Amino acid sequence: MVRLPLVLLFSAVLFSAGVYGVLARRNAVMVLMAIELMLNAVNVNLVAFATALRDVVGQVFALFVIAVAAAEVGIGLAIVILLYRTRESINVDEVNLLRW
Amino acid sequence: MSADQLVFWIFAPIAVAGAIGMLLSRNAVHAALFLVVNLFCIAVMYLLLEAPFLFAVQIIVYAGAIMVLFLFVIMLLGVDRGDDLREPLIGQRPLAVILAAAFVVEIAVAVRAGIGFATMAPEGFDAVNRDGNARALARVLFREYFLPFEVTSLLLIVAAVAAMVLAHRRARAVTQAELERLGLLEPPREEAPSP
Fold it and tell me: A47 lies in which domain range?
C-alpha cells in the first residue's frame, strides 16, 4: 500500500503542471489538454482518498468527473473549430471580442 | 520496499515527465502523445489504489475517446503552428514568482490537511469490494447517486447536440443585394411593352 501523502504530492505536482499549461500556452488545444491534466490530478486525489477512507464513493465521484470531462472536451473542441473558422487562428491571445 | 511502492516509484516519475514534456513541446501532436503517456501512468495509479474499474474506464475514455478527439482536431487545424512561450507583459516574472510561492504554500497546507483527515478509516476496503470493484461501484452509483447519474447522462446528450450545432457549417441567408453585387443575379428590368 502506497502511503497517502506520496499520492497527494504526486497529484499536486500534476495539478501544478496543468495550471502552468493553462496560464502559459497560447494554443487553445494545448489549453484544453492542460485542463485535462488538472482534472486527472483531481481524480487521482479522489481515488486516493477513497482508498484511505475505505469508502467507494470517491471512485463514483471520479467516474462523474470523467464523464463531465468528456462533455467538456466535446464542447471545447467544437468551440476551437468555430474559432478557427471565424478567426483563422486558435491563439487565445487574439480572441478579444468579449474582452472588456 | 513492497511491490506497490516499486510500481509507484516507476510510474509516478514517468507520469510527471509526460506532463512536463506536454507543457514544453512546441508541436501539438507531440504534446498530445505525451499526454497519452501521462494518462496511461495515471491509469496504473488507479490500479495501485485498488480501483480496477476506473483503470479500465480511464484507458477507454481518455486514451481511447478523448485523445482521438484531440488528435483529430489537431490534424484538422494543421500541425505546423508553433506556439511561442515568450511573455509580452512587463513585470510578469517577479509577480509570477511570488504567486507561485503562495500557490506552493497553499498546496502544502492542503496536502498536510489531507493527511490528518484521512487517518480515520471506518471499515475494511475488502468488505466494501467483496464481490468485485465494478459491482461495489454499481451498488453505490445506482442506489445513492442515481439522480446525479441521470443528470450526467442528460449533460452528455446536451453536450453532444451542442457540439454538433456549434461545429455545423450553417448556410448563411444570402440577400438579393449581395447576389447583385456579385453579378450572380440580373438587376430587375422593366417589362418591355408588348406591341
Answer: 4-87
